[in-house]
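Why do we care about 3D structure at all? Because function follows from shape, and shape follows, mostly, from sequence. That is the central idea of this module. The next example makes it concrete: a single protein chain, its amino acid sequence, and then its structure expressed as tokens.
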Amino acid sequence: MTHEGWGSPSVEQPPQQHYIVCGGNALAHRLVLELVEHYDVPVVALVPDRTRDHAPRIERIPGVAAVVEYTSLTDEALRAARVETARGIALVDGSDQDHIHAALSAQGHNPGIRIVLRMFNQRLGDNIERLLHNGTALSGSATAAPAFANAALSRPNSVRVGDRFLYVAYDEDIDSGQVCVVADRIDRQDLGRLRLLPDLGGRSAEFIELARRFGDDGPVRPAGRPPGAPGTGGGPEPVVGPEPVRPEPAADPGPASDRDPEPDPAPEAAPEAAPEAVLEAEAVPAPEPALASAPAPAPEADAEAVADPAAGVAALQSLPSEPSVRIPWFRRLRWRLLDTLRYVTSARLRLVLLTALAAVLFSFAVIWYLNRDFGWTLYLALLDLAGAAQPDQPGGGSGGTGGTWQRVAQVVITFCGITFAPVATAIMVEVLASGRRGPARNPGAGTREHVVVVGLGNVGTRVAALVHELGVPVVCVERDPQARGVAAVRTLGIPVVVGDATLETQLRRARIHRARAVVAVTNDDAANLEAALEARAVRPGLRVVLRLFDDNFAHHVYATLDNAASRSVSYLSAPAFAAALMGREVLGTLSVFRHVLLIAELRADEGGGLAGMNQHDIEDSGGVRVIAVRHARRPREYLWNYADRTRRLVPGDRVVVAATRSGLARLNTPVPNDG
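And the structure:
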């Protein structure tokens, strides 16, 4: 079925310089919202069916320029979406082959168009980028999977920037390695109160506010300091940095930078600084204050923050290496051995092999005890195990020193060797000669402290692989035996429970009662919640990670379930796709509950908006924090918390920012502040 109706505007008056989003899935829905709400650009949605999936929701989004319906991404469909006049196109629904064909076709119609395509095969995507003049390939599942895997292991998700790894820490986990505050007023029962990148001021915010208020006409003193206080007269001490921001009593009218600078009756000494001294102070690096408690709230939130002093805080912190999973080496070794043994043997065969091995070890100990010569005992046992030993003749004297018991032990070893030889041959033929993996095995009785992954779609497959790479045992549950992820995880030797049994039965077969966490990542929110509740019924208090699209649903889950986390694949990956469509380089995304924090690197180009701006100009619009600067003359050096906040960027400079979706969108076409 094809449909060429545009809705509004009509075909006769199509939009110009628009962006095309191809797809009707959850990611396409989120991406359209990102472009319309945060980047304020015209969007044309190219959907396969107006009545299915997320297409009806996309059509109801205010600000969508047009909706075109075509079952496949043909040249006719691209022309109907006016690809020849579009600025960019995002291909986020369909197979990798369809996306490659559509990307090359779009480039043929419009050589300068910006192309972003969703590719599950990242290696293929890297190769396709070489064929595109102005395009990039991203994987939504690869972007979101680390957040699910780290949430299951109660491990902070991190983004690498230079030689550091950035992650989000909460409350008591915040230490002196913090870079900036990223959220406050965190209430796990009401996540609607959470503020991402709150306006708490920087290290020099108080001095900058005073400089703007008083200008260059006279001396400047910090707010709340009496003009006649000691230290404000002759011989002032140089101002080297602001005082740490601390929570004020309940009667506090607001932060010092927002109060009228009237004399404070309290006789507290304070230095006086001239405007020049204040500006010099901005270039002096001052350490960030440790956040033992919540920082001072913004003026508009004073009353609420004071009423709830226990509101949580989150901060961006850096580590010299990626946070590791703390698992003892002997447990890792045991898991590897058990996984390998389960991979090449069945349960009955393992019982036979273990019994034969125990008999060989006992017989070896008997021979060594009788002869007291370890080297000779090992030599004789190996020959007997291979069936190469010569039996003693009646009346002969070549039976060694062990006598009858030695002969019995040799017979036991020889018969056990009959068991080992064919098994070893079968294993070598299966693994080395054929190179094929056997059928999936159910998890063994020794499986414990593992992660159960429910759903082997694109996301579930990547989550299982990531957890497996960290050395943590994984068991997967999938009802569809033809799912693409089943074969993928089998190649890794991960046990898979496949069948049409009830979910509770499948979870019990996955040994959920011995698991450390369950990750439910199917495409159905209700099915994911069902998996979580079934797992909790078997093992109360189990760590639960859910894939949920609906935000309100996720808030109820946070308020109801303890030790639970929810993530949305489209919510985590859509900002990265939107930024890539705008030509921005997003290094990674970090989740603060259901909110997304983007870590991006921006370049100041000749004639671009960033050239000529300083850190205050970039952060002035809100939703952005500059965390590192790279000068054009030293491009490999990251200057963290760069002290000279008044230095203007020159072409070739780069800044690393932590930004909200709207904050990064405002930097899409920034205008330098000449004030």
